Amino acid sequence: MSEQLCRWGILGTAGIARKNWLAIRNTGNGRVTAVASRDGDRAFRFIDECQREAPVDPRPHACEGYETLLERDDVDAVYIPLPTGLRKEWVIRAAEAGKHVMCEKPCAASAADLSEMLAACNERNVQFMDGVMYMHSARMPKVREALDDGESVGRIRRIASHFSFCAPEDFLAGNIRVSSALEPQGCLGDLGWYTIRFSLFVMNYALPVRVRGKILSEYGRPDSPESVPTEFSGELFFDGGVSAAFYNSFLTEHQQYATVSGSKGCLTVSDFVLPVCGNELAFTVENSVFAIRGCDFTMESHPQRHSVREYSHSHPSSQETNLFRNFGDLVLRGAPDRTWGEIALKTQRVMDACLRSAREGGVEVEL
Asked: Of the four listed, 45, 49, 136, 257, which is most buried by Cβ atoms within 10 Å?
C-alpha cells in the first residue's frame, strides 16, 4: 500500500462511478488506479471519458473482468457500484483478496446476504462502508447537536422523510432499478435506504421494534421476473412512543426532505440526500409559539437557520469527497471501523422487514 494514498479500483462502469471518480480525485488521500468491466473496451472508454473531465496521473488501468482488478497489487480498496443482485459475490471476493470495500446501496438482496458479506470483510480485517454520502457531510454533526441539546426539538416524537424522482418512460422500460433480478427492492432499495437511514440516525441507531410497509405501485421492465416497488410508504415504531414515516417513489418529481418533530420544536432538512447547488448546507429549527390574548389568536414561527460552509458537489469539501476521504483515512491508518458495517446491516434489516410487511398485505412485522 502507498504510505500516502489509498489506491482505488472501480468494479463496474455505472453512471454513479463517474461522480465518485471525481470524488476520489478530490480527496487528497486517494487515487483511482484501475477500472474493471466485463468488457475491457468499456472500461477503457470509461477511463477515457473521465480523464477528459477529471484527469488522473498516471492513467488508471483498464481491466477486462472484475477478478483481474482484484488480482492487482496496486489496488488497496474497491468501490463496487454493481447491481444489488450481483454485489454479494464481488464484495466477498474482494474481501478474500484483501481489498477494502466501499459498497453502493442497497448493500444486498437481504440481511442474510449482507451478514455473509460483513463476515468476509471482518475475517480479513478490511473496511466495509456503504455509499451513503450525506452521512459524511459536515451538516450531520450540526443536526446531531440540535437533536441532543434538549431545546431545539425537545423530546422526539415523530420523524418524517420523503425521497423521490419522476422517472421518464425509458427508465421504466429498461433501467436496472425496475428489474427484480438486479434491483429486487425497486424504489425502496434505491431511495428508501436513505430515508430509513435518516430515521435510524435520529434514533442513534436504535432499531424500531416493529414496522409496517405498503407498496403503492409496482412495475417490472419487460424482462423482469417479477414487479418491484415503484412507490412505497412505510412506518417505523420505536420504543418510547417515537414513530417514523417515509415515502419513496419513481413516480413523483424530485423531493427530498426530512423532519423531526418533538415536544419543543421541529427540525427540517429540505435537501438531506442531494444538497441543492451552492456553497453551504443548511437546516431549519422552528420553535413555534401559539399565543391567545383575548380576541387575538397568534401563531408565531420563530425559525432559526443553521448552516455549514460546504459545497454541494464536485468539490474537496463536498459530502461525496468526504465519504471517500474518510474511508481512505481508515484504510491508511490500518484501523477498520466495524461500526459502518453494523449501521448498514441495521438499515438492511429495517428495509427487509418493511418489504416483507408490504408483501404480506401490510401486517406489522417485528424486528
From this structure: 136
pLDDT in tens, 180-219: 999 999 999 999 999 999 999 999 999 999 999 999 999 9
Q: What is the DSSP letter of 97?
A: T
pLDDT for 3 beyond 70: no
* Nearest Cα residue to 148 out of 287, 241, 260: 260
Q: Are residues 186 and 71 in the same domain?
A: no
Residue 316: C-alpha distances to residues 60, 174, 319 (Å): 21, 34, 9
Asked which of 118, 134, 150 is the last residue of a domain, the reply is 134
Yes or no: say if 118 and 128 are a contact pair by the CB < 8 Å rule: yes
Percent of the chain with pLDDT over 70: 99
Whose cell is 418533530? That residue is: 261
| Total number of domains in the chain | 2
